[in-house]
Design a protein that fits this description.
The protein has five helices and eight strands. It has 180 residues and is of the alpha+beta class. Strand 4 and strand 5 form a beta hairpin.
Amino acid sequence: MLPCLLLALALLGTAPASRPAPASPEAEVAALEVPEEEEEDARCPLASETRAFSLADPLAATTYRYVVVTRCQTIHSAERTCAQCYRGRLASIHSSRTNAFLQRQARLCTNRGQVWIGAVTRPRGRSVRCRWADGSRYNYAHWQRGFPLRSRRYCTALCTNNGRWRSLRCRVRLPFICEY
């Protein structure tokens, strides 16, 4: 691609015909990287990028409101979007009923296969410490076999196919579910 671009520019007289010295792979990658704050779109999602729904919990006499945002973001950007645009947070899941409901809704909204939810894991000795980003009680889990990963801090994605949870690096860009 670069030789074609240089040839076109040389023919137009806007660049020399000689090829510049190749940069190191590290320099090329660094030139392509953009700080997270600049790479992520700071605006609130458009209506076409979201789907809102609610789930009544008769035992708690409350209704939980959710929105699936189909715009892919890192988990940190997703957390900011939930807070700034919906005055909420990434979804915390405390029952199989809620997990199945969110899985079905996410599957209807996106074809990405996974969406961010608000669980974070960290290694703790030979085990792993799991917590919800909103600080609520960690009283339910639905991990895929072999997860959560135990080697470092990971964020959690809900699989839209089977409802199982997987550990992913937090910088992966996925759709997400906000709870508000």
